[in-house]
Design brief:
mainly alpha; flat; 9 helices; about 85% helix
């Protein structure tokens, strides 16, 4: 019995990510739709995220039960997404309920100040080296970690971190030169 289980485990580890994707993708999407009431496209995104989380661990053979791992990963990703949605909705409701904030955000002074701020940041971004700007935007706009950027760009995480830090310092310097406040 133990050898059969060990044999199955060895067989599971020999299969690649593509095999598991074909085997469990539809099943996991249906699970996310039925358990959490998501749309099918939302479920597909979460299942994709689960496979992305599994890929590195699958390569090193850390996963004993792939199907159970995927179900747990989809479950956790869905819970995270639902919580983030609740936080966003709560914030949106609190902002809508605050008449001072609403009034302030529509004032001509606020709009002009915001445009001036964006112009300063935009000029600072375009004046920095292309590579530095791209790494900053990947980190701050796309939300990629230093490690993920490093992997994509073929750099070390330390180099990416230094470029992002220099880019941020350049933006801060641009703001400081113009009085530091808008």
């Amino acid at each position: 019995m133990a050898t059969a289980w060990a044999s199955q485990l060895a067989t599971d580890n020999d299969k690649d990510l593509d095999y598991y994707y074909r085997e469990y993708h539809q099943e996991l999407c249906r699970y996310a739709v039925s358990k959490f009431g998501l749309s099918y496209s939302e479920a597909e995104d979460l299942v994709q995220e689960a496979f992305a989380r599994m890929a590195p661990q699958l390569r090193v053979g850390d996963i004993e039960h792939v199907r159970a791992f995927l179900y747990r990963a989809v479950h956790n990703a869905t819970i995270d997404t639902l919580r983030k949605g609740q936080v966003r909705e709560s914030y949106a409701q609190s902002v809508q309920g605050d008449p001072d904030r609403e009034q302030d955000s529509r004032s001509p002074e606020r709009v002009a100040s915001g445009r001036q701020f964006l112009g300063l940041i935009s000029r600072a971004l375009w004046n920095m080296p292309h590579k530095r700007r791209r790494l900053l935007l990947m980190n701050r706009v796309d939300g990629l970690s230093y490690a993920e950027i490093a992997r994509r760009e073929g750099l070390s995480a330390t180099v990416v971190k230094k470029h992002v830090a220099k880019a941020l310092a350049g933006c801060q310097e641009a703001l400081r030169v113009h009085g530091g406040e808008l």
